[in-house]
Design brief:
By secondary structure, the chain is α+β, with helices and mostly antiparallel strands. The protein has 19 helices and 20 strands. The strands form three sheets. The chain has a six-stranded mixed barrel. It has a six-stranded mixed barrel with strand order 13-14-18-15-17-16. Helix 1 packs across helix 9 and helix 9 runs antiparallel to helix 10. The two termini are about 55 Å apart. About 40% of the residues are buried.
């Protein structure tokens, strides 16, 4: 071992506390890169392979009802590579493990081997037999939530009629990687599930023989998506089309894309924070080390060591520290990446999701860390290394301290001599002092921002679930119902209050910006679910106009008093220019509100609703849910308490 290498080991031991601190900070940066990049690549590769292998659609559209003969016209649209018309029917499922009526989405299923798009992946059991109308495939998430296996049975109410379904198999689908029920914020595998039934059997149960109410398309590579959507909307409009949309707006895929975007941002934002901190610490440590070893540097040069040799020695010291951090970061990053992958498996349902990381990620993280550290070390030691031997062997000249401007004008009069020494020391090296203060400030800011996350979640939950939406249950109807539905619900056990809503899908357009959202039509006296302003006061909905929350208004670039083009995507699909009459403050989602009477007038309908929010006596929830299951026009119910619990768990 050469003499400088032995000195290197002794130096590292001498400053072992600083070495460990710097190595840990570098390890944090490397671990974050390995964690986020590896998980991002694994999730992206798995998603793309899954979508491609099982023919996930590029365009989706829902409608009221259209004859099967229309499929040929849809397939003939220029740019369409594959098409599949399907049936979607919501049902109530009676599951013993929960007291609430469970919502189920039943999708039609072609015979095995004949499904053209969004092909289910069989995980257990077998495909439903064509000659057995009661056999179904069950989504794996729902099956796990209720402990279902092939051979089990499910009691369901489909189109107002009760029947017992037999589970023939457990499956996944690229269409439901993130299985989210209508109106839900997080997946609830106990209260919402996806099932697949033979098309002929589902058509008979839903009174849709010879018809379809859902379309999925796969585009050719040369297709123009906007042109295909326009042509599809034109074909489906007479049949109650609700507006076609691209894959990026498909609910499940939108959540997967959002998570990928967050991982990408983590890679871009977090590691630089740790790297800058590590370089700053390394700069201080190496500059102090070189400054205290001036005489040793002079002796080394006097006996023949060159500036290059001495500089490489200090550079090697920094490299050893960085390599320690890199090795720790690699191990920690892989461990955390595997843990995050296990967490994704709980929420994102892929046939297989493994944490795979390429050597390039390891090398990239190491290279970035080494380059940053070497740059900081060279800057810190350059002056000491370049000293002539005679000058290096002499002690450094003492710093010159002069009265500061604050002392000269008398601001610091009365400060003790020791206090004046502190102030002069800070003023003598203003840049070093400023960076030290900045570093402490950023560290404290980072700590507070992380701790503030928990308070932010509590505030968000309190605002959304306990001030904006104070209901105990949200009931959705199979179709629009007259206002007399409120009386039917009010007579159920434990119901303390009922408010009706008319919720419709719409496209809001401002200039060249558009957004597909749900407009919530609320009554003038709505108290259970109501929009609030920045001061937490109720925003009253005028007889005309639309109210947007801040995020949606910002996205569309409109303010109160502006105008929006509103295209309703249901019924007669009317289009109107509607004034923006107010802006609300909400922490979750993109929300738009209208007076229910005004919305019904826009739809050219009478006093009708398709949703109800209820306040229910907690002691009578069991009786309430049992009676609710018997109502034929109830499509589903969402429990507010369950939503809060699941949201907290996921966050």
């Amino acid at each position: 071992m050469q003499s400088l290498d032995r000195k290197l080991i002794r130096d590292l031991w001498l400053i072992r506390g600083q070495v460990l601190a710097i190595a840990l900070v570098i390890a944090a940066a490397v671990a974050t890169i390995v964690l986020s990049s590896g998980t991002y690549r694994s999730l992206e590769l798995t998603r793309d392979l899954y979508y491609d292998r099982y023919y996930f659609g590029d365009i989706f559209a829902g409608l009221k009802r259209a004859p099967d003969s229309l499929a040929a016209e849809i397939a003939a649209i220029p740019g369409v590579g594959r098409e599949e018309t399907r049936l979607h029917q919501y049902a109530l499922l009676d599951m013993p493990s929960v007291i609430e009526p469970v919502r189920g989405l039943i999708a039609s299923l072609a015979p095995e081997g004949q499904v053209r798009l969004n092909i289910p992946v069989l995980r257990e059991g077998r495909w439903p037999r064509p000659d057995n109308p009661d056999e179904v495939l069950v989504h794996e998430a729902f099956a796990e939530g209720h402990g279902l296996h092939p051979g089990d049975h499910i009691r369901a109410t489909i189109n107002g009629k009760q029947r017992t379904l037999a589970v023939s198999g457990i499956a996944l689908s690229p269409e439901f990687v993130y299985s989210l029920g209508p109106g839900d914020l997080v997946p609830d595998n106990k209260r919402f599930g996806v099932l697949w039934m033979n098309r002929k059997a589902l058509a008979a149960a839903a009174n849709l023989e010879g018809a379809f109410n859902d379309v999925s398309l796969r585009l050719q590579h040369s297709a123009a998506p906007e042109d295909v959507i326009a042509a599809l909307d034109n074909i489906l409009k007479p049949y109650g089309g609700t507006g076609a949309f691209l894959r990026k707006d498909q609910l499940s895929n939108a959540f997967v894309d959002s998570e990928l975007h967050q991982l990408e941002m983590m890679t871009l934002i977090v590691p630089p924070i740790f790297l800058v901190t590590a370089v700053f610490l390394l700069n201080i440590a190496m500059s102090r080390l070189a400054e205290t070893e001036r005489q040793q540097i002079g002796l080394l040069k006097a006996i023949g060591y060159t500036d290059m040799a001495v500089g490489v020695h200090y550079l090697k010291t920094a490299v050893v520290i960085v390599l320690m951090g890199i090795l720790l970061g690699w191990g920690a990053g892989m461990w955390m990446g595997q843990g995050m992958t296990r967490l994704y498996i709980e929420y994102f349902r892929f046939p297989i999701l493994e944490y795979k990381i390429t050597p390039g990620v390891f090398l990239g993280a190491a290279s970035i860390s080494l380059v940053a550290a070497c740059a900081g070390t060279l800057f810190a030691t350059r002056r000491s290394v370049l000293l002539a031997p005679a000058a290096a062997m002499m002690p450094p000249p003492p710093p010159v301290y002069r009265p500061s401007l604050l002392e000269r004008i008398g601001v610091l009069r009365g400060i003790t001599p020791s206090g004046q020494m502190v102030i002069r020391h800070l003023v003598r090296w203003p840049l070093r002092s400023a960076f030290t203060v900045l570093g402490i400030g950023l560290a404290l800011a980072l700590f507070l921002s992380m701790m503030n996350f928990y308070d932010s979640v509590d505030l968000m939950l309190d605002s959304f679930f306990f001030r904006n939406n104070r209901q105990d249950a949200t009931v959705s109807f199979t179709d629009i119902r007259p206002d007399s539905a409120a009386q039917d619900l009010a007579h159920l056990p434990g119901v303390l209050g009922v408010e009706l809503q008319r919720n419709v899908s719409a496209r809001l357009v401002s200039g060249h910006i558009s957004k597909r959202v749900a407009i919530r039509g609320l009554g003038e006296d709505a108290e259970l679910s109501r929009p609030l302003d920045a001061q937490g006061k109720k925003v009253f909905l005028p007889p005309e106009g639309i109210v947007l929350n801040e995020r949606l208004a910002s996205y569309l670039g409109v303010r109160a008093g502006g105008l929006l083009d509103v295209s309703i995507l249901e019924g007669r699909m009317p289009e109107r220019v509607v004034p923006v009459t107010g802006i609300t403050t909400e922490n979750i989602g993109l929300s738009a509100y209208m007076n229910r009477d005004a919305l019904n007038r826009l739809l050219r309908e009478g006093p009708v609703a398709n949703t109800a929010v209820l306040m229910v006596d907690k002691a009578k929830l069991g009786d309430f849910y049992r009676e609710l299951k018997k109502m034929p026009y109830v499509a589903g119910v969402a429990s507010q308490a369950a939503a809060v619990s699941l949201f907290r768990k996921m966050v």
